[in-house]
Amino acid sequence: MLNGDTIFFLGYSGHAYVAVEVAKANGLNILGYFDKSERKNNPYQLDYFGFEKDRKFKDIVKDALVFPAIGSNVIRKESHRILISHDVRQTVLIDPTSSVSNSSNIGKSTLINPKAIINSLVRIGKACIVNSGAIIEHECKIGDYSHIAPGAVLAGNVKIGEGCFIGANATIKQGVRIADNVTIGAGAVVLKDITQEGTWVGNPARLIVK
Questions:
Q1: In this structure, are strands 141-142 and 159-160 parallel, antiparallel, or unpaired?
Q2: Count of beta carbons in the 10 Å neighbourhood of residue 109
Q3: Annotated catalytic residue: which of 15, 80, 138, 147?
């Protein structure tokens, strides 16, 4: 149970706002945030504690949880590795309105947003995002640092590589395999394996950027 624990966030912009509300829904006490600079826009009135690459980072966070609330897969990966190097406490943030199977396995520093559905025997890696209303069906596997955008649907036994972005309302056919560092555009329909990095769009999905 997270209720009553304390947490810091890495990053404080649009994506972090959702993470803040998920944390609040789990009863967490938010101590503040780290970022390259203090944000002028501060809708949750959080305190600023500097940049996570500063020498005092570990001394500040102590035994509190720290969560990388960053939308970019690349930057989130970098920040997550800082957490690992400092051996700070991590957690999984799961919105109470989501549906997550007890047989699923979710890596640390992953965010499950409102109304997401994660079904039986799903495996999700470290520091991933499963965004609002996404559906991940049985036995899917999602690599570290990937982002499943709002409304995306992964049918059963889909395998997503590391660092992938699956766009809003995209659909991945059952059993499809997707390589590392692939971007699937919004609304795309993926009917066969994708073995090449790049951006894929349309129905059926085709490569447009290598």
A1: parallel
A2: 26
A3: 138
Could you read off the pLDDT of 182-209 as tens digits, one per residue?
999 999 999 999 999 999 999 999 999 7
Phi-psi region of 127 (alpha: psi -120 to 50; beta: other; left: phi over 0): left
At residue 22, the 3 state secondary structure works out as helix
Query: Strand 206-209 to strand 198-201: parallel, antiparallel, or no bridges (unpaired)?
Result: antiparallel
138 assigned to active site: yes
Distance of CA 50 to the CA centre of its chain: 23
Report the candidate in 184, 111, 176, 115 with the shortest Cα–Cα distance to residue 141: 176
Q: d(Cα 77, Cα 70) in Å, to the nearest integer?
A: 9
For 24, the 3-state DSSP assignment is helix
Neighbours of 99 (CB within 10 A): 12
How far is Cα of residue 87 from the mean position of the Cα atoms in its chain? 20
pLDDT (tens digit per residue) in 99-132: 999 999 999 999 999 999 999 999 999 999 999 9
User: How buried is residue 14: exposed, middle or buried, by Cβ count under 10 Å (0-12/13-18/19+)?
Assistant: exposed
